[in-house]
Design a protein that fits this description.
Elements: E1 3-7, H1 8-13, H2 15-23, E2 27-32, E3 35-40, H3 43-54, H4 64-76
Parallel strand pairs: 1-2
Antiparallel strand pairs: 2-3
Helix pairs in contact: 3-4
Amino acid sequence: MNTSIATATEMQNNFGKYLNLVMSGQEIIITKNGHEVGRFVPKDATVSYLTDSLTGILKGNDDIGEVKSERLKEKYGSID
């Protein structure tokens, strides 16, 4: 899945453009003041993204946030 990054202002001013990108299968990461605040994800990818974000939580890992972050980076790449 292709991923793009848009600021909250860009998203607000060009919603139709980003809606078309999502409808074509692209994921949009929304940032505000340089920090990720949300994602605009195609419907078919929603369940996969949610289940992937939970991977590792029930395996007794001490640092859930770190495991979640590592697994998401493996699947979706870094946004830094």
